Amino acid sequence: MKEVQRKTPVRHRRSAEADRLSPVAALVRHHDRDRFQTALFAPAARREALFALYAFNYEIARVRESVTQPMLGQIRLQWWRESVAAAFDGGPVRAHPVVGPLTAAVRTLPLTREHFDRLIDARERDLDEDPPASLAVLEDYAEASSARLVYLALEVLGAQDAGASEAGRHVGIAYSLAGLLRAAAFQARTGRRFIPADIAARTGLVEEDYRALRGTPALRAATAELAAAASKHLSLARAHPRGLRRRTLPALLPAVVARHSLMRLRRVAYDPFDPALAVPDPLQTWRLGVAALFNRF
Questions:
Q1: How many CA atoms lie within 13 A of 202 on its CB side?
Q2: CA-CA distance, 281 to 263, in Å (whole number)?
Q3: DSSP-based three-state secondary structure for 248
Q4: 123 vs 193: CA distance, rounded Å
Q5: What is the dihedral of CA 280, 282, 287, 292, to 10 degrees?
Q6: Quick one: average pLDDT of 207-219?
Q7: Measured distance between the N- and C-terminal CA atoms of the chain, rounded to whole angstroms
Q8: Which domains does the chain have, with CATH numbers?
Q9: Residue 211: is its pLDDT beyond 70?
């Protein structure tokens, strides 16, 4: 008698796939869709280290939203400073689902401690309610909070040459600026303004309009200026591709996400509060796959 093969229900298959993920991979999949998808294009032997980095980044990035006072945020970030220091100095590993995998990555791969320090420094800036004074200040924040993570990802992938790092710097800044624009509605609701003070003054942005989520001409002009800055960094990143090896690609694929995000923003006339921008890109995995296939970002 021929055996009847039963198909596993789709939701059960998805549950089984999720169960096979490590805790850090599951955390990144749930909270950082972009970087989870880019990490899947890395060699299997290096993915867990990338997931550990991205999980660490999520933990420090959410500090501002998880505390009620800046002092409490500083205490949490200091805890992470000490955990990173212990990982590099051979100290005891704290009982935390992210600290263990992060420590393993630090102790087995040639990662730079300064990048971790700069990432935590950037998250201390998040505790400051004042907007950045200028685009240059915002770009410095983007370099510290995003490009440093790209540098570490390149180190995990064994691609620390100068060309890759320079491309990574521009990719990191562009991805951060595009990400801030994507999150504009959330930022406004929490009372945080990331638009630099000089751009706000030049465009005539009114704080009350921003907090009320009004897509005014002034807001659109300010958004267009930030989008142009992000696009410029993407162009500068692409000036380095010929000398870059394929192994660098998983660290640089966030450029694909940033580029499409800016395209969507342009379609809604640079209104960052347009509801259409809140819908995730359903073709993002496909876009990343095509980019990986042709070794471009």
A1: 15
A2: 12
A3: helix
A4: 15
A5: 90
A6: 95
A7: 53
A8: 23-111 (no CATH), 129-297 (1.10.600.10)
A9: yes
C-alpha–C-alpha distance, residues 11 and 13, integer Å: 5
For 102-119, how does the pLDDT look when each residue is reduced to its tens digit (9 = 90+)?
Answer: 999 999 999 999 999 999
CA dist., res. 261 & res. 277, Å (int): 8
Q: What is the CA radius of gyration of the chain?
A: 20
Report which DSSP code applies to 241: G
DSSP 8-state secondary structure symbol assigned to residue 131: P
Residues in CB range of 39: below 8 A, 6 or more apart:
28, 47, 50, 51, 54, 250
Integer Cα distance of 129 and 70 in angstroms: 10
194 with 131: CB under 8 angstroms?
yes
**Is it the case that residue 2 has pLDDT exceeding 70?**
no
Query: Residue 30: how many CA atoms within 13 Å on its side-chain side?
Result: 11
Contact present, 118 and 148 (Cβ < 8 Å): yes
Beta-carbon contacts of 220 under 8 Å, excluding residues fewer than 6 positions away, are 269, 270, 271
- Residue 295 CB contacts under 8 Å (≥ 6 apart), including other chains: 246, 249
What pLDDT band is residue 12 in, cutting at 50, 70 and 90? very low
Helix orientation angle between 254-267 and 284-293, rounded to the nearest 10 degrees: 130
Six-digit token string for 5: 């093969």
